[in-house]
Amino acid sequence: MVKKPSLKFVVLTDTHIKANLEGTEAQNFDRALKDILATSPDCHGIMHVGDITDNGERAEFEIVEQIWKANMEGLPPIHFTYGNHDVRWKDLDRQMSLFKDHTGIHHAYYDLWLEGYHFIFLGTEIGLKDCAYLSETQLKWLDQKLSEHELAEKPAFIFVHEPLLNTVAGSQNEFGWNGIRQDAELKTILAKHPQSIVFTGHTHWELGAKETMYNKKYATLFNAASVAYLWTDDDVLKEGSQGFFVEVYEDRVIVKGRDFSSKSWVTDAEYTVQLPVTIPVVDLTVDPDCTLRNPAMNMNKSHFQPNEQIEVTYVGSLREDAFGIYRRGAKPSETEPISPMVHVQTKTFGQPDGKLIFSDLDLPVGSYDMIYLGETLNTELTRLPFDVVVEAK
């Protein structure tokens, strides 16, 4: 007699629904839900890993809800987290209100238990363009939650939209990675709880690509592709719609890739995670993939003369990021990143920590901000005030 799994669930991500019920994205979501009902009607839940909508607009959330209500009969509950497209450059309270109204989920991060297994959903707390920002409070909460009823042979399942740096497919710097700003902090927590199995989206990398599953360090991580459209290892856009079907047994977890367009299994995307999980232990203090951490800036002092050079040191910047001097209170944006009173320097080397020196300045007397421009509209946490003064002789 073949033993049945004690738990079954489906992982979807990146539906990117637009305000058009006839659009490709809406049709792909509808097709995926119908395929789940036909393929695994006895599953215990559907987990959506974010980028539910394309622009976070009310009309898009309404289409999501409409599609779900048209298909929900016979399906298990759907549990959402959200992605950067759902909140980017927007007031997070407003977006969370839309998220709650149309998904029934009231929190940026939350957990639940299904059939004795822990499911944990994380979410950004700032509406950044492409990245997630996890507060210290959320990270401490995650560590605490992973410790609840913790057993080495029983995995906890974590869902967060953006992947960790240099882990699953599409998260490598060479592809212009944008991920979780507290990358090192999250890796540190996962390394304490290696039985965790993490599902991420964001990259759209097709199932079966290199590093669809990653378990070299920290925990077991999966890239869940996309329901809307796909990306390849050659960094090329590809039509398609994919997700995961997961079966949990006492001694293993089987993760199977599904192609919703062809209603078929992705033959080179079936993975088995043996329980208890064995993950190599690494020294996180010297781990070359554990360099990006909670962003911060420091300046050498807070008062300068008009022609004096200014130094800024920083940790946690991304790739070739810019740092700028703006008049106090300025709010740069992606469309208008430079105002008349600004000096900008760009970090062009690879490591996320460093120092920049602004020289040959002739700033008028006044009040200024040093701003990290990596997230443009959301600079409150990476903005340092300083003054330019003329000292009395």
Helices, strands, pairings?
Elements (H helix, E strand, L loop, with lengths): L6 E6 L11 H16 L5 E4 L9 H14 L6 E3 L3 H4 L4 H12 L6 E5 L2 E5 L14 H12 L9 E3 L23 H10 L4 E4 L12 E2 L5 E4 L6 E2 L5 E2 L3 E7 L3 E8 L4 E11 L21 E4 L3 E2 L5 E6 L6 E6 L15 E4 L7 E5 L7 E7 L10 E6 L5
Parallel strand pairs: 1-2, 2-3, 5-6, 6-7, 7-9, 16-22
Antiparallel strand pairs: 1-12, 4-5, 8-9, 10-11, 12-13, 13-14, 15-17, 17-20, 18-19, 18-21, 21-22
Helix pairs in contact: 1-2, 2-4
The CATH topology of the largest domain comes to Purple Acid Phosphatase, chain A, domain 2
* CATH superfamily descriptor of the largest domain: Metallo-dependent phosphatases
SSE arrangement, N to C? EHEHEHHEEHEHEEEEEEEEEEEEEEEE
Count of individual domains: 2
Secondary structure category: alpha/beta
CATH class of the largest domain: Alpha Beta
Distance between the termini: 93 Å
Number of strands: 22
Report the oligomer. single chain
Low-confidence stretches: none
- SS summary, helix count: 6
The percentage helix is: 10-25%
- Second rung of CATH, namely the architecture of the largest domain: 4-Layer Sandwich
Largest sheet: 6 strands, mixed
Q: Characterize the overall form.
A: globular
Whole-angstrom Rg: 23 Å
SS strand fraction: 25-35%
